[in-house]
Amino acid sequence: MESGARRPLGEILLEMGVLNRAQLRLGLVHHHETHVPLGRALVREGVCSEADVLRGLATQLGVEPVDLEHQPLDPAMAALLPARIARQHRAVPLRLEHVPLEQGEREVLHIALPAPVSLEAVDAVRAITGKPRVEAHVASDTALTQALAELYGIEEPTEPTTPAPATPGGPLLLYGWPPVTAVLITRQLARHGYQARVATPLEVLHTRREDVVLAPIQAMEGLLAGEVSIEGALIVHGASDDEGFDRARQLGARGFLANPRDEQLLLRAVRRLRPGGASLSGAPDSSHHSP
Fold first, then answer.
1. 240 near 258, Cβ under 8 Å?
2. pLDDT digit of tens for each residue in the chain (291 aa)?
3. CA 107 to chain centre
4. Cis ω before 275 (30° cut-off from 0)
5. Residue 93's domain is classified under what CATH number?
6. pTM to 2 decimals?
7. Are residues 57 and 79 in the same domain?
8. Of 105, 120, 152, which one is at a domain's C-terminal end?
9. Range of the domain at 37
10. How far is Cα 140 from Cα 153, in angstroms, rounded to an integer?
11. Residues 178 and 244 in one domain
């Protein structure tokens, strides 16, 4: 059950057709920023259901999934597996199966576990119950929490909520700048009444239409690879040539900065987008502040 040759969950879900590459990228950003499993990140982002992720995990791990929300639990099973083991491994006893053999029969205990299914958990359940065979099934985190509460009264601590997206119309969001440049831009804008702060990748991906993001072209190309796009207005910095402007257009940028240290050009680009602004179209003007 624990193998180093597992296929990535994201690839499995793509093949299942439950998400696209843009949605997977969003989940991966959430996964890396919040340090939660990818499946949970995808559910939080609303691009997959827990049932979709569960089917993907079952395929990845080579075990059968179990939908605890639609399977009645047997209270008598709680007497078979002590609460401390259930809590430690988040193991839920499901049922006993009697498998006929040539001489008598063998009992098989079926349990539900979180992904990735742990051999240590299976061995612990086998040792404490004395059952010769334990079959593990993978279940969703939410369903396991509910089942443990129902069978044992085990209450899990509340999971921290996802950081809120950037406040619409709030500070300008700086992404991908070297620290010194970010401080310089922040100070330049502050002198003219604009607030700015450094944003995380997840905050940039969750911008609203009213938000404005300032970033180098390379940083945004890395974040928005594939089909990903953002709702917020984007001002990018790059080389002031045809290639630079074309790259900005491909990102959907609405402003362009040839030199972010030029305070007047920076202000002109920002003022076009706060409170409103024009779309990226046509050829750049001679000042190179908008592609």
1. yes
2. 444 567 889 999 999 999 998 888 888 888 888 888 888 889 888 888 888 998 898 888 888 899 888 888 999 999 999 999 999 999 999 999 988 876 667 889 999 998 888 889 999 999 999 998 999 999 988 899 999 999 999 887 655 555 555 555 678 999 999 998 999 999 999 988 899 999 999 999 999 988 999 999 999 998 887 667 888 999 999 888 888 888 888 888 998 888 888 888 898 889 888 753 333 433 343 344 445
3. 40
4. yes
5. 3.30.300.160
6. 0.61
7. no
8. 152
9. 9-61
10. 18
11. yes
Tell me whether residue 158 is in a domain: no
The reply to whether 75 falls in a domain is: yes
Tokens 């919040």 sit at which residue?
34
Q: Which of 152, 184, 203 is the last residue of a domain?
A: 152
Q: Which residues on neighbouring strands pair with residue 109, listed in sequence order?
A: 96, 134
Do 22 and 55 belong to one domain?
A: yes
Q: Are 27 and 10 a contacting pair, CB within 8 Å?
A: yes
Tokens of 104: 């008598």
Give backbone dihedrals phi and psi of 135, rounded to 5 degrees, phi first. Answer: -105, 125
Verify that 232 and 188 share a domain, yes or no: yes
Residues 56 and 74 both lie in one domain: no
The position carrying tokens 């050829």 is 283
- CB-based contacts of 221: which residues, under 8 Å, 6+ apart? 247, 251
